[in-house]
Amino acid sequence: MPASSASNRRSIGISRQFIGFGVCNTCGAAPNVDLKLTIFRKTWKRNVTDLRYRALLKRYFSFTNDVFNMPARILAAPFIIGALLFLFLTWEVDGRYSWWIIPWVIALAVVFTLSPQINWWWYQRYPPDLNTGLRKMLERFSPYYQRLSKEEQLRFRQRMALYQEANDFMGKGIEDVPADLKAVAAACAVQLTFGKEDFLLSPFEHIIFFPQPFPSPQYPENYHASEIYEEDGAVLFSAEQLMKGFLEPGAYYNIGLHEYAKAFERVDAQQEFPPLGEGHWEELEQISGFSYPAIQQWINLDPIPLRPVSITLFFTFPDRFREVCPKLYAAYARIFNQSPAVGEVLNA
C-alpha cells in the first residue's frame, strides 16, 4: 500500500509544483484555498482544453513511425503527389495549371479531416498488435493476460492497441506520456471490458496522467491518486500509483481497474449489480489484504465506494474472490461475461 507519510508529503509537494495551485513550495501550505477555488477551476478547464489541443496537434501533425497514423497517410499520398505535380506545372510550364491544384488540395483536406475515422475503420478490420516490449511487459506482470489462451492473448493485445488509437492520452507535468504508461491504462480498461463487444467505455475518452497525486475541481483540497471527471469524459491517474498497482498488484491497490470500474458503472447504467453491504468490506480485506483505511489512504479520497473496489479485486484476486465470495463472483462473471479465475470469456 502507500509509502510512509513522509514519503507521501514529498510526493504531494512535488505534484503541487506541476498544478500551479498557489501553494508554497517551501512549507507546502495552500493559503486562501476557498478564494482560489474559482480560479483553480478556470485554470483546470484551460489546461484540459490545452491538453486536448496539443493531443490533436500530435495526432494530425506527428510525422513519426507511429503505426496508428499510417492508413490515412497512405491514402493521402496520391493527393499530395497530385497537388505537387500541378504546382510544378504551374511554376514551370503554364500558370493555367493552377486551377488543377484545387481539387487535389480539397481531397487532401477531406482525408486530413477524416483521418481518425479512416484509421479506425482500417484497424477494426486489420487490428494492429503491440510491439515486443509491451508484449513482454504483459507476459511478465499481468496474471490476467497470462491465464488467457494464445488466441485470446492476441485479441487482448489488439484491443489494447485499438483502445490507444481511439482515445486521447495526455500528460500534465509529463512532457511526453511514455508508451508503457499508456499501455498500462489501456490494459486496465480492456481487462474490464474484455468480455464485451463494446470495449471503449465511451464517453470516457480523455486519459490524463499526472506524475504524482494531484488536486482537481472535484477535490481541490485532496492530492489524490485517481478519479473520473464525468463532465469532461476524463479519467485521471497519478502515474506513480497506476504503475505500482499494475506491476505489483499484490502489494499495491490497482487504481486503473478502480477508475475504469466506476466508468463502467456510468456507461452501463442499466446494468443490475448485486447488492453490497458494509459487511463486504471484511470479506474484501480477507481476499486481498487491503483494508478500507489502506485503500482510502492510497487513493486519498473519502469515502471510497464499495462497488469499484469489489470489481477491482474480482479481477486482481480472482481465485480468492471465487473462494470467499462465490455468489458475488458468479454475478460479476455474468455481468462482465468472463471468468478471470480461468481466463475465459463466457459467451464469445
Automatic annotation (TrEMBL):
Source organism, top-level taxon: Bacteria
InterPro entries: MtfA_fam (IPR010384), MtfA_N (IPR042252)
Record-linked Gene3D superfamilies: Glucose-regulated metallo-peptidase M90, N-terminal domain
Pfam families per record: Peptidase_M90 (PF06167)
GO CC list: cytosol
Transmembrane segments: 74-91, 97-115
Swiss-Prot/TrEMBL keywords: Membrane, Transmembrane, Transmembrane helix
Name of protein: Zinc-dependent peptidase
Species classification: Bacteria, Pseudomonadati, Bacteroidota, Saprospiria, Saprospirales
